[in-house]
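Sequence in, structure out.
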Amino acid sequence: MKTLVIGKEDRYRKYMPEDIPFVNQTEMVFCERGSSDEALLEAAWDADFLAADPMTKVSGNVIRNMPNLKMIHSEGVGFNGFDLEAAAARGIPVCNCKGVNAGAVAEQTILLILALLRSAIVGDRVEREGGQIQRKERMMVEGIREVSDCTIGLIGFGDIAKATAERLYPFGCELVYTALHRKEAAVEERYHVQYLPLDELLRTCDIVSLHIPVTEQTRGMVNEAFLRGMKRDALLINTARGDLVDNLALRQALIDGTILGAGLDTIYPEPTTADNPLVDLPRECADRVVYSPHIGGITTSSFRRSHRMIWQGFADYCDGKRPRNIVNGV
């Protein structure tokens, strides 16, 4: 058996579950993310299994030219760079690590919410500069919203949104959600959420948080019309994917004051550069944005869970079992 791994070898070695026999039975070939199709095929055209960083590209060309390929597994939840149709055409299941980082991303969502409500980044800077009392006096006049003062809208209601709702409920805020299909009453009761159509959610929520995958329907959905539909003192949180946001539309909304601010764990494209329109903001609105470097789902525990899921998935396939979390319908 041979396994092609597209991603950092040191990361895979660190989190490799040695108690799964398959790990010691397969020959592993490591290639860096961003390797060309030619380099991947030269390194491991005859591989039986393929594991890939969720941000990488696994093309149809690679899939079609690996005659022994039996299964593909994302290292994370994402898989939008993988050619699902090419894999399905050959009967090759593509799997992801559904749910493994839900709690971690939920924590990051709440971190960004709190950082924005408390102006944490500005406060840290001003404290270091010796302007503590002036900043405190200003914030007492301008006001500080508590989480319990807010209605928070979750767009999408999968694993991460549910974990976010669980963690937000004790703050005492009102929680609403929208999704393609409304959930059963028992689910809404369990997570203390109410359903609203998207336009009503945008119109009523103080904080809007994105928790949906990137599809042809959702790519760029946070556009000018979406942002105009939000309250002028509302905050946008994105711990999902940068591709969901029209960068120029959000930039203009922040400059114009169409919305108050944003907390962004992910920005399109990656790697984020200093001249990205959502980073290179005018000073008057820059302090109303909080960034984190797409770290929401990369906690130590989530990596341990995901890498166990990858190697157990390959082992299950070899044992004739159906892999978990197949995303391409095979």
